[in-house]
Predict the 3D structure of the following.
Amino acid sequence: MIRTKILGTGSYLPEKVMTNDDWAKLVDTTDEWITSRTGIKERHFAAPGQATSDLVVEAAQKAFVDAGVDKDEIDIIIVGTVGADNAYPSTGNWVQKKLGMKTIPSFDISAACSSFLYGLILGDSLIKSGVAKTILVSSAEIMSRIINREDRNTCVLFGDGAGAAVLRASGGEEGILSTYWGADGNLGDLLIQPAGGSAMPASRETVDNKMHTVHMKGNEVFKHAVLRMQEAAVNAVKRANLTSKDIDLFIPHQANFRIIEATIKRAKIPLEKTYISIDKTANMSGATIPVALDWARREGRIKPGDNVLTSAFGAGFTWAGLVIKF
Ligand code: ACO
């Protein structure tokens, strides 16, 4: 039986650190409010001139080294992002160019915070169906370019970064054991960047009204996030024919520590087995999980044979869960 193994991972956070106190100088907020309501302490912001593809390039190069593969062994590039370099070409195309890769298929997927897990599920099926042997799946976001810096309800929640994984077909025990994903477009308006697409093309008015930024009904998003993250986690575990006790590490999407707490309570996973990185990164949308996965591996939190559960929830709404044996 062919399994999709994660051969290697890499991550990158831009140099500039923006602390809660830095935000408190710009909007009416405090370190205490942000920490107690979200668990966030700091986030990284990209430098002017850095594009989303530049972040992917950094993470991908580290993933290639970790995986022990040459870039020419990659058959497909998949990038998950809500902040592509351009409307077109895709960020994946720019990554291909910047890394000097072969003329392989390269493209973006848009599933907001779930985009890395959507990418893994897509990569898994491309490998299992024999379309590709080795795939680069990455997710990167420069959320600092799409936040409304005057809206304290949203601006403090986000950060920039990129994570990447090299997937390869394997005949061994390790690899993706189960997947679960879903979406509900009926709730799209609760978390949306309204302008810049065909529904509301860019105009002086859309810029003046800050319509090219994150618009979110935080309380509503919170409720759905808890329900869907635990649904994705519980069903991924069930589909792997495991129970929550068999999970060695849970890597949830990091949007809010309170969402994580509520999710693990419902999914019956102890906090000691849950990876937390939100304090250092804030919510990097789709980049959050691959960065956490890379850090967890490098910190030795994932050992050979471990069952790692991951689940995400994001704009769309979208959600996904996987169990991966390392
Ligand atoms: N500093 C100080 N006060 C604030 C801040 C801030 N940064 N932000 C909001 N407040 C105030 C509000 O104005 C409100 O004041 P009021 O009562 O006088 O009106 C008060 O704090 C309470 O606001 P709530 O919205 O009830 O606060 P809540 O405890 O719900 O926390 C939060 C808000 C953190 C946004 C929470 O709802 C949340 O995390 N939601 C989910 C966000 C999320 O998961 N997004 C994920 C997806 S992102 C993606 O897919 C790209």
Observations:
- Residues 29, 33-34, 37-38, 112-113, 152-153, 156, 191, 218-219, 221-222, 225, 255-256, 259, 283, 285, 314-315 surround acetyl coenzyme *A (CB under 6 Å).
